Amino acid sequence: MKRLSTAFAIVAVAGSAAIATAAAGTLTDLMQSSRMTVMQVDRASGQVLCAEHRRWTTVARADLTDVNAGDIVRIDRGDGRAHLTLLRTAADEMSTPER
Question: What is the DSSP annotation of 28-94?
């Protein structure tokens, strides 16, 4: 019975590690796919062109007031609309050295 308990514990720990690794990969993928660098802003149509995906994304026009080329943004989709959040301006990105 003790061997069975030990074997079960080893399998449980290995399974937990695999789940944690898969979840971490998914979170990293999600963060990387949701962060975008703006290449162009078309305020008239309410769209931004991002460097990573090279396609136009329609967002709420009100979200584009402070967004410019080079800014780092996140786009959240929900309720049938996409909302853009400015994470970091191009000026901030250029003034802070990589660590």
Answer: HHHHHHHEEEEEEEETTTTEEEETTT-SEEE--GGGGTT--TT-EEEEEEETTEEEEEEEE-HHHHH
Distance between CA 19 and CA 71 in Å, rounded?
Answer: 34
Q: What is the pTM of this model?
A: 0.61
The secondary structure of residue 55, as a DSSP letter, is: S
Q: For residue 31, which of 79, 97, 83, 87 has the smallest C-alpha distance?
A: 87
Where exactly are the structural domains of the chain?
A: 36-95
pLDDT digit string, tens, across residues 55-99: 899 999 999 999 999 999 999 888 777 899 999 898 777 776 665
